[in-house]
Amino acid sequence: MKTTFYQRMTALAVVMVTLAFTAYGQSAGGKGPDVLIVGMASIGQEMGAPGYWLNDRQQALPVTGALGGSARAIAVSGSNVYIAGSTQYPNSPCYWLNGTRHDLPVSRAEVLGGAAAIAVSGSNVYIAGSERSHTGNYQWKSTPGYWLNGVWHDLPVSGTYGSAAAIVISGSDVYIAGQDGDGEKSTPGYWLNGVWQGLPVTGTSGSARGIAVSGSGVYILGSDGDTFGYWLNGVWQALPLIGAQGSANGIAVSGSDVYIVGYDYDTSVEPEDFFGFPSAACYWLNGTRHALPVTGKYGNSARAIVVSGSNVYITGQNEYKACYWLNGTRHDLPHTGARGSADAIVLR
Question: pLDDT tens across 82-110, in order?
Answer without folding.
Answer: 999 999 988 899 999 999 999 999 876 65
